[in-house]
């Protein structure tokens, strides 16, 4: 297994650590972060999430720079993103920091695109993430990070950036999902 794929696996392995920090009954109190009060566990969870999300850029950088792009990596990388983002969004619903219907739309798109990838893989085609899919992933990461940090960065100017970012993430999630299906509709037209 090459280095980029190992980095991708590390992203998957950070998910249970994130879940334990966010959902286990730890009470480490609250802290002030850029003027906003938030539970210490949410701050630690945000740091873990951001570190795990950063591995998405790192594994892609090494794969392209050293010509280590593999079919396994093309499969694992978006899967790791979907697992991390889905876990974080479900936690945010549990903590009542994100609207459940928005999370359902986002996760439904992730399942649908994964299903499309499986259909295409059955035909011998591996589809790598495109530019719009990468924008979608980064808008989701920004929204989740802002929500985990309770909008602390923008709290001082009273802008609900975290909620706006979640709406932007949902928009790009829907758009990129439509784009994947539009570009690969032949998979359904040619299926038997």
Automatic annotation (TrEMBL):
One of its GO terms (cellular component) is plasma membrane. One of its GO terms (molecular function) is CDP-diacylglycerol-glycerol-3-phosphate 3-phosphatidyltransferase activity. The lineage of its organism: Bacteria, Bacillati, Bacillota, Bacilli, Bacillales. Its EC number is 2.7.8.5. Keywords: Cell membrane, Lipid biosynthesis, Lipid metabolism, Membrane, Phospholipid biosynthesis, Phospholipid metabolism, Transferase, Transmembrane, Transmembrane helix. Its main location: membrane. It catalyses: a CDP-1,2-diacyl-sn-glycerol + sn-glycerol 3-phosphate = a 1,2-diacyl-sn-glycero-3-phospho-(1'-sn-glycero-3'-phosphate) + CMP + H(+). It is an enzyme of class 2 (transferase). The chain crosses the membrane at residues 12-28, 40-62, 83-107, 164-182. InterPro entries: CDP-alcohol_PTase-I (IPR050324), CDP-OH_P_trans (IPR000462), CDP-OH_PTrfase_TM_dom (IPR043130), CDP_ALCOHOL_P_TRANSF_CS (IPR048254), Phosphatidylglycerol_P_synth (IPR004570). This protein catalyzes the committed step to the synthesis of the acidic phospholipids. Pfam families: CDP-OH_P_transf. This is CDP-diacylglycerol--glycerol-3-phosphate 3-phosphatidyltransferase. Belongs to the CDP-alcohol phosphatidyltransferase class-I family. It is found in: Cell membrane. One of its GO terms (biological process) is phosphatidylglycerol biosynthetic process. The keyword Transferase applies. The gene is pgsA. The keyword Transferase applies. Pathway: Lipid metabolism; Phospholipid metabolism; phosphatidylglycerol biosynthesis; phosphatidylglycerol from CDP-diacylglycerol: step 1/2. It comes from Bacillus canaveralius. It is a multi-pass membrane protein.
């Amino acid at each position: 297994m090459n280095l980029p794929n190992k980095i991708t696996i590390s992203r998957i392995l950070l998910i249970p650590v994130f879940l334990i920090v966010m959902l286990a009954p730890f009470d480490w109190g609250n802290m002030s972060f850029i003027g906003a009060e938030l539970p210490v566990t949410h701050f630690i969870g945000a740091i873990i999430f951001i570190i795990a999300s950063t591995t998405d850029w790192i594994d892609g950088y090494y794969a392209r720079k050293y010509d280590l792009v593999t079919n396994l990596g093309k499969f694992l990388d978006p899967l790791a993103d979907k697992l991390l983002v889905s876990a974080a969004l479900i936690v945010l619903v549990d903590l009542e920091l994100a609207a459940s219907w928005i999370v359902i739309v986002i996760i439904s798109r992730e399942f649908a695109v994964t299903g499309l990838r499986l259909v295409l893989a059955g035909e011998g085609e591996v589809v790598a993430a495109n530019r719009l899919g990468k924008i979608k992933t980064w808008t989701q990461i920004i929204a989740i990070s802002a929500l985990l940090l309770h909008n602390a960065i923008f709290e001082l100017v009273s802008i609900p950036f975290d909620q706006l970012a979640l709406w932007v993430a949902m928009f790009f999630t829907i758009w990129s999902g439509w784009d994947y299906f539009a570009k690969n509709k032949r998979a359904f037209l040619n299926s038997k």
